[in-house]
Write a structure and sequence with these properties.
Blueprint lengths: L1 H12 L12 E11 L3 E13 L5 E8 L4 E23 L2 E27 L9 E12 L2 E9 L6 H14 L1 H29 L10
Antiparallel strand pairs: 1-2, 2-4, 3-4, 4-5, 5-6, 5-7
Pfam families: JHBP
Organism: Diaphorina citri
Protein name: Circadian clock-controlled protein-like
């Protein structure tokens, strides 16, 4: 945990030398989500996703086993300020979702539990040194308070504002049920992004230089 605390300011600014992206803010150029089941039909594109708050994580527990290349980690994110452009077409339960706009939200006290394992890659065609890569990971997310959200329609559809208001009101009245539907998407998307970042960093650091305090 002392290592994580010491690394926090570097994570916020990023470390270009080893390809660590800045976490304050964390910027994701584009994300796409496609789902088609009974309760959730969704074709969603997010652009210019900007998130403030990731570097302020609180470590609940961490267990790293280097010989077995495994890790268990639990963190809490006290707050996340999120803004993104969206383009959506689909429905959640009985509520239609369609149009483009801007989403802004402040989400507090989100808990993330992760476990993962990896392997050592020793391939001189890729790198001149052995490096670690995450090969399998699981994540569970418990989203905190989502009451402070706003959605602004930006398309020319005269019914866009009404659709946004209907969807927003439905969410506020049924947030628990909606979150149960979308949490697996949050987990899957977040895990994909995290693994890309972690493996990109790991490729830049020889495994024998990884030390745990």
């Amino acid at each position: 945990m002392r290592v994580a605390a010491a690394a926090r300011p570097h994570l916020a600014k990023g470390i270009p030398k080893i390809k660590v992206p800045a976490m304050e803010p964390l910027i994701i150029n584009e994300l796409q989500v496609n789902r088609n089941n009974e309760n959730l039909m969704l074709k969603l594109k997010l652009k210019n996703v900007t998130v403030f708050g990731p570097s302020h994580f609180i470590i609940n527990k961490i267990n790293i086993n280097l010989p077995k290349l495994s890790m268990d980690l639990s963190i809490t994110l006290p707050y996340l300020d999120i803004s993104t452009e969206y383009d959506v077409d689909g429905r959640v339960l009985i509520v239609p979702l369609k149009g483009t706009g801007i989403f802004k939200g402040n989400i507090t006290n989100t808990r993330i539990d992760m476990s993962g394992s990896g392997k050592i890659v020793d391939d001189l065609k890729q790198k001149k040194y052995p490096f670690a890569q995450v090969t399998d990971a699981k994540v569970k997310v418990k989203v905190g308070d989502t009451s402070k959200i706003s959605v602004i329609a930006t398309d020319n559809n005269p019914n866009a504002r009404q659709l946004v208001d209907t969807a927003t009101n439905f969410y506020r009245q049924n947030s628990k049920q909606v979150l149960e539907l979308i949490t697996p998407i949050i987990e899957e998307t977040g895990l994909e992004v995290a693994m890309q970042i972690v493996n990109q960093i790991a490729r830049s650091v020889p495994f024998n230089e990884i030390l745990v305090d």
